[in-house]
Design goal:
three-stranded antiparallel sheet; elongated; 3 domains; 507 residues; 18% strand
Length: 507
């Protein structure tokens, strides 16, 4: 269990995450305006009259966004509500021209109800993280404070884009039923899993760098052994895994210092300073009553049929958790290797392309990817850009390149040393397939037993003392003979054949 040592004892963390992902859709949640708000688009050009709540403008629900929410809900093993509603959440801020946000109220069923995902816990075992809900709502615009020395600007292109807010679950009344996040590392694993599920399903790009995935981080602390939950604070709009972990650690220690000095933690909304790694109070945390929720009078209840749910279920791809399990159980990969290969959908898809349906390739391809390709991100494209060209200094190594190289080893065309040399030449920009490179530079493994035996005889005749020692019981000298033969053949001999023949000749 993850704990933090205080001056008066050990403390544990209770973490609740509210994760917002932008839903992939051509249009916004309640208008026909484009949902594309990338930085190359001029500000305030993707905005409809509905998005700014002009008089007489009526919102129309985007059915595709609802289906995307259902798709995500099925991906997190969640209940899908047959009926859900939208409400107006009242607050004023310059990035929300409506003066309210259309969302789904916490006291009514959202589109996506209770669910869960599994992550690797800090103890190295699978851990279920309970999810309370995932509800649809509109995103706000974006404020820009650095474009002018004295003025701030608002870009409403993002306003009205569909957001899916995913909230982890904490059962206060029945603490024995809880399975929640208890450390910064678990928080990161959870968020990465949410991201990869969303990407695998095509629900969201879930890219923190562009703002299509953000997290509000709720942290509280309690003494180890306590059953009562502490007062939580909420750090808003976190857009970096690294900063989220740092914010959790700092906020936890801040709360511990307050409690150990006899103070009381207040339920505040916090901001995070990226420069200092510190949190600070922004305002008192709002309760539901502060938002004055009321049913949106312009939107009817959302009715979802069983037929719709089953139709969407039938289109779901293989999810990262299922793929990891298959890699372990069917391909014989270790948990570590399976985890590395499913860190992103793009990486696992690249692995599948390289394997090309041949399970025998799984382990060697996994080894090459993890030990070699991952160390050279500039030389490969996990986005499956198999047609990427070369440049003056590097080349893109494709799935077919790696599968061909692995096959050359298994077919004894080249040995491990030669394969590594071919790989290095590809990294350096050498054109051609691995076979073509091997032919060009004369890198072929010697499997002719006659040629190998001749080299062995020469080594034995040149080292009578070592031969005598070996035959006298110093069997570790086998490595000396193998090394000498490999050197004599320029590293081109098949090492397994060399080993076998030496043992026969030495008796």
């Amino acid at each position: 269990m993850y704990t933090i040592k205080g001056k008066t004892g050990d403390w544990e963390l209770v973490i609740v995450l509210e994760t917002h992902i932008e839903v992939l859709s051509e249009s916004k949640l309640f208008s026909g305006a484009s949902a594309d708000y990338n930085p190359t688009i001029s500000p305030n050009t993707q905005v409809s009259m509905i998005d700014v709540a002009m008089p007489g403008m009526l919102p129309v629900l985007n059915e595709y966004c609802v289906e995307q929410a259902i798709r995500f809900g099925l991906g997190i093993n969640a209940e899908i509500s047959r009926t859900s509603r939208f409400a107006r959440k009242q607050y004023f801020y310059p990035d929300l021209p409506m003066g309210y946000q259309i969302t789904q109220p916490a006291d009514e069923p959202p589109v996506v109800g209770r669910g869960y995902i599994e992550i690797m816990g800090d103890d190295g075992n699978p851990k279920k993280i309970n999810i309370e809900r995932a509800h649809l709502e509109i995103d706000a615009g974006k404020l820009k404070h650095d474009a002018h020395p004295t003025k701030s600007f608002a870009d409403y292109n993002r306003g009205g884009v569909a957001l899916l807010e995913i909230v982890t679950y904490l059962d206060i009344k029945n603490p024995e039923n809880n399975s929640y996040i208890t450390s910064p590392d678990e928080a990161e694993r959870y968020l990465r899993e949410i991201r990869e599920i969303a990407r695998a399903l095509g629900v969201s790009r879930a890219n923190m760098e562009e703002g299509s995935m953000r997290a509000d981080v709720n942290v509280s602390v309690r003494r180890v052994g306590d059953t009562k939950f502490g007062t939580r604070t909420e750090t808003k709009n976190m857009v970096s895994f690294k900063f989220i972990k740092t914010a959790i650690e700092y906020e936890a220690r801040r709360q511990i210092e307050i409690l150990e000095s006899g103070g009381t933690v207040s339920q505040d909304t916090m901001r995070y300073n990226q420069s200092t790694g510190e949190t600070s109070v922004m305002r008192s945390k709002e309760d539901a009553l502060d938002y004055r929720y009321f049913p949106d009078p312009d939107l009817l209840p959302v009715i979802i049929s069983e037929e719709t749910i089953e139709r969407i279920r039938g289109t779901l791809p293989e999810l990262p958790s299922t793929r990891r399990k298959r890699y372990i159980e069917q391909l014989g990969l270790s948990e570590y290797d399976a985890g590395r290969l499913t860190e992103s959908v793009d990486i696992s898809n690249w692995f599948e392309l390289a394997m090309d349906g041949d399970n025998k390739r799984a382990k060697p391809i996994a080894n090459w990817m993890i030990s070699e390709l991952f160390a050279h991100p500039e030389n490969w494209s996990p986005e499956n850009d198999v047609n990427a060209g070369n440049n003056a200094h590097t080349r893109i190594i494709t799935p077919s390149d790696l599968s061909e190289l692995v096959d050359m080893i298994s077919e004894l065309t080249v040995n491990g040393k030669q394969a590594k040399e071919i790989f290095i030449k590809m990294l350096d920009g050498e054109n051609g397939s691995p076979k073509q490179i091997a032919d060009k530079f004369g890198m072929k493994q010697i499997t002719d037993t006659g040629a190998i035996e001749s080299a062995i005889d020469s080594v034995i005749n040149a080292n009578p003392g070592q031969v005598e020692q070996y035959r006298g019981g110093k069997v570790g000298l086998i490595g000396f003979f193998v090394g000498a033969v490999m050197k004599a053949t320029g590293g081109a001999a098949n090492q397994a054949v060399v080993n076998e023949l030496i043992k026969k000749k030495l008796g």
